Amino acid sequence: MEYKQLHTSGKIPVLGLGTWTVGGSMSPSHAKDGHYLEIIRHAVALGYTHIDTAEIYGGGHTEELVGNALDNFPRDELFITTKVWHTHLRKEQVIHALDGSLKRLKMDYVDLYLIHWPNSQIPLDETFEGLNRLVQKGKVRHLGVSNFNLAQMKLAQEVSATPIITNQVPYSLTNRRYQENGVLEYCQQNGILLTAYTPFDRGAVFRNKVVQKIAQKYTATPAQISLYWLIRQPSVITIPMSSNPDHLAANLGALDLKITPEDEKKLDGLG
Question: Which of 19, 130, 164, 266 is spaced 20 to 30 Å from 221 by Cα?
C-alpha cells in the first residue's frame, strides 16, 4: 500500500475501503451479513487498512459489521474513519454520537472523525467544541469534514483548535465539481487531503470511451485507470467501495500503473 503524509503527523493509505450500503443504506439490513464480514476481512488481508464508515450507514449496522469483522486485526495497524450525521451536531450530541459509534465499532478511539454534512442551523463553533473535546479525551485522533464547500472549509479551520486534515467529497474523472469550486486547489495549497468518494461516479467512469481506450492500451481496468488518476494527484486519496473480492484485488493494481504524460493529459481533459 502507498501512503500520503498528514500535515499534522502520521500517514494515511491512498486507497481505503468505503462501506456505504454495507449492511443497509439508511436502515439496517442483515440479509448479507456473513458476506460483508468476509469482504471486510478479505479487504484488510489484501492491504486495505483504512476503513471508512459512518453512524448513518445501515442505521448504525455498518459500524457493527466493521467492528465484528476487525476483531482479530491489530488495532494499531488500522486507520478507522467514521462520521457524525448532520442532525447530531450540537456539542453534547457529537459526544454522544461518537460514544455510540465506538460501542458499535468495539473500539476505544477512531483515527478520523468527520462531520458528514454541514448543517447551517447549528453553529459550527459549537460542533467543534464537542469534536475538540473528543480529541482531548483521546477518543479521536484526527478531525475532518465531508461535503463542505470552500467557505465552509475555511470556517471549520477557523473555529477548530484541532487541525482539519481532510474534506471528503465526491470526485472522479467524470465529476469535477470540487475541482471547479476551488476546494481541491485550496486543499493542495494548505496541506489538507481531499478524500474522493464515489471515485467511479456510479459507473459513469466505466462507460467513458476515453477511459476504456486508455485502459485497453495499458491492459488495465477502467477502475484502475480511475483510481490511478486520483491518487497521482497531490493531496488526493480515495475510498472505493466494492463487495466483490476480485474487484478489491484488482483495484490495488492502480498502485503499479505507469501511464504516459500524454495519456494523463487526456484523462485530465475529461473534466
Answer: 19
